[in-house]
User: What shape does this take?
Amino acid sequence: MRHLAIFTPEAVQAIFSGRKKIDGRFSQIKIPPFLKVAAGDVVLLKIAGEKIVGQFTVDRVLFFDHPRAFEVDEIKRKYGRDLVLARTFWLDHEKVNYATLMFIKTVTKFIIPPEVIKHDLRPWVVLG
Assistant: This one.
């Protein structure tokens, strides 16, 4: 399955450099990629307002449905470094109902970006 995901320029750079080894998506409501992404899937990397710049293959995925406080603390402790999140991330996301952790396997930079039409504000689109 293929997916289109929106990233900040800093997150894309961290993925390309190998510092960001896990992409984490956290939400209040059940939206993709929660339960929609699987090992072997391809995620296209798009910087907001710009073109698709690359892709990564998902190695494995962990899903958390309404994680308790101790589970969120474990996510921070165990995966925090590889998520490469902004310093204020957890202050801005105190209440998390759904979490998806995607372990990044292989990363490819595009010279010629593929065309995928997207004209909405969704941060994640399942392409099929």
